[in-house]
Design goal:
The complex is a heterodimer of chains A (439) and B (715). Chain A is α+β, with helices and mostly antiparallel strands and 439 residues long. Chain A is 37% helix and 17% strand. Chain B contains 30 helices and 20 strands. The chains are: A alpha+beta (439), B alpha/beta (715). Chains A and B meet through α2 of A and α15, α16 and β13 of B.
Chain lengths: 439, 715
């Protein structure tokens, strides 16, 4: 009895990691509002506005951790570019990470670690991606030839290198969509998951319709206004963007049925509408040690309770990460699925989302894959992606994690507090889960 | 031997380094007594056979020589004395030019006027790539000409057209521009300046001169040079063109440009030495002109204002890091731009619509991206600057603003709302500045919780171009608030004058009777072109009717009744003007005013239908001399009242305000110098003359009558 009380006191004294505020840009379809604006500019845009709104002395920010998935070769450390390119303090430390679609889960986790360890007490984490400004390279043959040419000394040597090139070697090469190690595309992976589980086109379309309808509703009810900034883009002649231009405000189920399969053209069930579209955007959160936040007079949006990352098979059922990472995060938080008030799962594809929902409720999956006797738990759809998900908002890869975290925290707050789960799959068979609490 | 500002250092490699360092000053300036000191050094060096070359540098980082000391000219009474000063300088620089070994100028920082003439007399010029490095001959701006050989050496180095352009406009070149013209031989980082200068000396010794190769004359620039400059016929063409341009710009009000052209012309037709003689003679003549005296007085006034804190009390300006701008319209956008790009502040713009914010961002981006395209700044610098400028449709991110400048619509109720909003949403220390052009500041401060932090900042449009900032204090405005505004104004690149609160403050109050007079003449049937031309000829940048169109007839008619209320009938506007607004004529902003605004490229023309609206038949003849005199007298008369009533602190502020805010002809030196020049008695007589003819609005100000009796002057 007395031991428990002492333990409680110790825990109460322990500083939690607080998320003070979060912000994102509206997400825009590829080559629309943010055409020509690269990920770094998007990152600067959101962090700058977050800073200005927080009215925090820039000197107090000790670290920025940021990420992008489609990395620009000219500036791989996006976090530092953000610090140097905005009114932030030059002495703010900054580094960048990549964890595919779960990148900003990682930036938040890394910053949380630093704060827990007492390394820093205030920082910013987030991610940005652009599908509109991408590094377009040259063919492997041309690449080799260009390096060889630098080394070649005589005209003869140079000529013989050039002679080896064919016209097609000179064509520009867009960034690869195939995974480096497996040679498979993300769509093929999701198609395989749908196929093996017999998930129908109708089920997938219904989820997409649900996602768009809930997202549109969230916008119409003004729930997102304070977490999404208005984006003013260079040269400031285009109409400013207030809302995501991907969300369908007039979604009808029939609309989805018209589309043709996007990946497996013959027998496939995945279409452009039940897969998340390529998009541009950025998001970030301001994090502090709980005591620091309170000392500065901030009322945090919420706290990080636990998080976990999982790695699984990358050639088969690759997008099942949430079903592996979630039980780990629950265990760390000493909680069960039914204790959660909200569940927010990244919707890369409707098929992937449905596959994971099924796995959560499957005892067989729990026994075979997780080595535990009981299933993770049946998902109550009234608590699931209540404001829609990535199918509707879009998915600027590295920006999705912090979008979900801020959105979930604010929704928990509107509901009077509670505990929520955010979880995502990521390329390479990775999964992330983070449990958040709001008082 | 008195302490020399020149330090001579003999290096082991046989190179003599002369360092110029004026003790106790931020900038080096050339004074006549230095001639002797340099002469001595050169003599010493010429006896030393081990000297292989000479480098002239400045001991001040970021400043070479900012020019000649013009205070010397104050004590000059005759043209002959001034001519002698020029000749002394010429002799010294000729001595440099003819020195037995090569001399190279190592330029880091401002190299202007006499400083550039010195550099021109050297055999080589190396410039640093610093943003402080600027080269130019700005003498024309003081009504003078480069009198130490500049009119002869510059055209021979960079060609006649470029030299005339530099000398007639007084423009200052960046290092890159100077290199392109051939004004400097090389641009290097400041740390490599001496290395590059040494290398240049070696090249000069080996006669690796930078002569143009013969193939140059096959290029377009080369052919142009052969056609225009290398023969008397072509040169005539260039000079005639230059004279035409000068006449259309100066309307014959400024003698210096023609004198400059004459120097260059004679230098080519009669030779270098004859050119120098003409240069010295013309310099002497210009120094004693009233135009030069007026322009120099403005220069001194602005120099004084740069050191002026704006208040007598010993207070420190508060630190300003973040400026909030309310309203993203034309004025708000301009204020945001000068705050972010010139003053380097963090700026947050609030507007009722995101469109307004986008407009404000676009306004700054247009100016900044232009600099980027001209490679004055890099793309990353441009975007970095832009990141200091953000916007919002609510008060998020305004709490920590040190100063708020409101530029919303001119409506007292709205302004009161702004005061309240700022008190609710910003910090206790936040200064509330209003950019009103008509509403008295004390009225805006009514009901403010902290009236001591309410102040007027009257900017002029377009903000990034107009140099004046009128800072208006009320009885309650705290000294530290004024000092903070003065400091910010200077950082924004403005010349601030501090004035007391009152209807129209200073600038609009003296402008109103001047514009009204044009309106009265117009409603009597004087043609619009006649009125505008008369004032432009008198030296104003634009005529009063054009000004009305530019400022906006709606704005002007809003200010007018306030002034009439305060000052009575002398500020009465012509009644016909209200008909203009009924006809939806707002001026340029809605393409309906006194003029028609056709699409680009075409010249604007008077909109003849406006006469009908006003109910007049144009055709009345009044001489341009009378039109100009009536306008200027009324303006000066009102300015005298402002000084008398303590609206302005000094005649100096009144002159600077009129020139920088309205464009009062600079060659008169401002309304107070104009009155002094004509004599207060003459001014009173002329006013009374018009008073008899046209009525009470010409009644001389009491202070002027008193000054006439006591035979006083303003300065």
């Amino acid at each position: 009895m007395s031991e428990t009380a002492a333990g409680k006191r110790a825990r109460a004294k322990q500083d939690r990691v607080a998320i003070v505020s979060g912000l994102r840009t509206p997400f825009a379809k590829q080559a629309t509002h943010f055409r020509g604006i690269n990920a770094i500019e998007l990152g600067k845009m959101v962090v700058n506005e977050l800073m200005v709104r927080s009215e925090l002395d820039p000197k107090l920010i000790e670290r920025v951790i940021f990420g992008q998935v489609v990395i620009l070769p000219e500036a791989p450390n996006i976090a530092r570019e953000i610090v140097l390119g905005t009114p932030m303090n030059v002495h703010t430390d900054a580094y960048s990470v990549s964890r595919a679609c779960a990148t900003s889960f990682q930036t938040v986790a890394s910053l949380a670690d630093s704060i827990s360890l007492g390394d820093v007490s205030i920082g910013i984490a987030g991610g940005a991606d652009s599908s509109s400004v991408v590094p377009i390279g040259v063919s492997r043959k041309l690449q080799l030839a260009l390096v060889d040419l630098q080394k070649a000394k005589t005209v003869g040597q140079k000529l013989s290198i050039i002679k080896g090139l064919r016209f097609k070697d000179l064509l520009p090469v867009p960034p690869a969509i195939k995974e480096y190690s497996t040679g498979m595309t993300m769509g093929e992976n999701a198609e395989q998951m749908a196929r093996d589980r017999g998930i129908t086109r109708e089920e997938q379309d219904a989820l997409a319709h649900r996602s768009h309808t809930l997202a549109a509703q969230a916008w119409e009810e003004g729930k997102l206004d304070d977490e999404v900034m208005t984006a003013y883009a260079e040269p400031y002649t285009k109409e400013p963007l207030h809302r995501d231009n991907i969300v369908r405000f007039d979604s009808t189920l029939e609309g989805y049925a018209k589309l043709r399969p996007a990946f497996d053209r013959k027998y496939g069930t995945l279409t452009a509408a039940n897969s998340t579209p390529l998009s541009d955007g950025a998001s970030a959160v301001l994090m502090m040690k709980e005591s620091q936040a309170k000392a500065l007079g901030y009322e945090p949006q919420g706290y990080i309770k636990s998080y976990a990352f999982a790695a699984i098979e990358a050639t088969h059922d690759m997008l099942m990460g949430p079903s592996y990472a979630t039980p780990m995060a629950l265990k760390k938080a000493k909680m069960q699925l039914k204790d959660l008030d909200l569940i927010d799962m990244h919707e890369a594809f409707a098929a992937q989302t449905i596959s994971n929902i099924q796995a959560f409720g499957s005892t067989e999956f729990a026994k075979e894959k997780l080595g535990q006797r009981t299933k993770i738990g049946d998902i109550d759809m009234d608590k699931f992606n209540v404001l829609g998900g990535s199918l509707a908002y879009g998915h600027p890869f590295a920006a999705t994690g912090t979008r979900m975290i801020t959105q979930t925290l604010r929704e928990l707050k509107r509901r009077g507090g509670g505990v929520g789960l955010t979880t995502a799959c990521a390329a390479g068979g990775l999964g992330a889960a983070m449990i958040l609490e709001v008082e | 031997m008195c302490e020399s500002i020149f330090e001579l250092n003999m290096q082991d490699d046989g190179i003599a380094v002369i360092t110029i360092d004026l003790p106790g000053e931020a900038q080096n300036v050339l004074k006549p007594e230095f001639g002797e000191q340099v002469g001595e050094i050169l003599e010493k060096l010429s006896d030393d056979i081990s000297v292989k070359g000479v480098i002239i540098r400045s001991g001040k980082a970021g400043s070479f020589i900012a020019g000649a000391d013009i205070t010397v000219l104050n004590s000059v009474d005759t043209a002959e004395e001034a001519e002698e000063i020029a000749k002394t300088g010429q002799r010294l620089f000729t001595q440099l030019e003819k020195f037995k070994v090569p001399i190279v100028a190592a330029i880091d920082g401002a190299c202007l006027g006499g400083g550039l003439e010195l550099a021109l007399a050297c055999h080589g010029r190396i410039a640093s790539d610093s943003s402080k490095t600027k080269l130019g001959l700005p003498e024309v701006q003081l009504g003078l000409l480069p009198g130490s050989g500049g009119t002869q050496r510059l055209p021979r180095l960079v060609g006649i057209p470029s030299a005339l352009d530099m000398m007639l406009t007084g423009k200052q070149l960046f290092p890159k521009q100077a290199k392109k013209l051939g004004l400097v031989d090389e641009i290097v980082p400041a740390a490599n300046l001496m290395k590059a200068a040494t290398k240049r000396l070696h090249d000069l010794r080996k006669d690796r001169s930078m002569k143009k190769p013969w193939t140059y004359y096959l290029s377009l620039a080369g052919i142009k040079e052969l056609l225009l400059e290398a023969n008397p016929l072509g040169r005539n063409l260039v000079f005639n063109q230059a004279r035409k341009t000068v006449d259309s710009k100066t309307k014959g009000n400024y003698p210096a440009p023609h004198k400059i052209i004459e120097c260059v012309e004679k230098g080519y037709s009669q030779g270098f030495d004859a050119g120098l003689a003409v240069e010295a003679k013309n310099f002497g003549q210009l120094v004693v002109t009233p135009e030069a005296k007026a322009l120099i007085s403005i220069f001194f006034a602005t120099t004084e204002l740069k050191k002026d804190k704006g208040v007598e009390a010993d207070v420190e300006a508060a630190k300003v890091d973040k400026v909030g701008v309310l309203g993203g319209g034309l004025m708000g956008s301009g204020i945001a731009y000068v705050s972010v790009d010139k003053a380097g502040k963090q700026v947050r713009v609030k507007d009722v619509s995101s469109k307004g914010i986008n407009g404000a961002l676009n306004y700054s981006w247009k100016i900044i991206s232009k600099k980027m395209k001209r490679r004055i700044i890099s793309p990353s610098d441009a975007r970095n600057t832009m990141s200091y400028l953000t916007g919002s449709t609510d008060y998020k991110g305004f709490k920590d603003c040190d100063m708020i400048i409101e530029a919303v619509f001119e409506d007292l109720e709205l302004k009161h709302q702004m005061v309240k909003d700022v008190e609710d949403n910003c910090a206790e220390k936040t200064i509330f500045a209003t950019n009103t052009s008509s509403i008295p500041i004390s009225k805006i401060a009514e009901g403010a919780k902290r009236p001591e932090q309410v102040v007027g900042l009257h900017y002029f449009s377009p903000v990034e171009k107009m140099p004046l900032l009128e800072i208006i204090k009320t009885e309650k405005t705290a000294d530290w608030v004024i000092a903070t505004c003065v400091a910010l104004g200077k950082q924004q690149g403005k010349t601030p004058i501090v004035v007391n609160d009152g209807a129209g403050f200073y600038v609009n109050r003296i402008l109103a009777p001047y514009v009204n007079e044009a309106g009265i003449l117009l409603s009597e049937g004087v043609a619009i072109e006649t009125l505008d031309k008369a004032m432009v000829k008198a030296g104003f940048p634009v005529g009063p009717i054009t000004l009305l169109d530019e400022v906006g007839i709606d704005v002007a008619t809003k200010v007018a009744p306030i002034l009439q209320d305060a000052f009575g009938d002398r500020m009465e506007t012509p009644k016909a003007f209200s008909k203009l607004l009924d006809d939806d004529r707002k001026g340029r902003k809605n393409n309906r005013g006194f003029y028609q605004y056709p699409a680009k490229g075409k010249k604007k023309q008077v909109d003849e239908s406006v006469y009908q609206v006003l109910g007049v038949e144009p055709g009345k003849e009044v001489s341009s001399a009378e039109i100009a005199e009536r306008g200027m007298l009324l303006m000066a008369n009102e300015a005298a009242r402002c000084l008398d009533e303590g609206i302005i602190r000094s005649a100096r502020d009144g002159d600077v305000g009129a020139i920088f805010g309205i464009g009062f002809p600079p060659f008169h030196g401002g309304p107070f110098r104009y009155m002094d020049k004509r004599g207060i008695a003459t001014i009173v007589d002329r006013l009374e003359h018009y008073q008899n003819l046209y009525g009470e609005r010409f009644k001389p100000a009491k202070v002027l009558v008193k000054m006439k009796e006591n035979q006083e002057s303003f300065y």
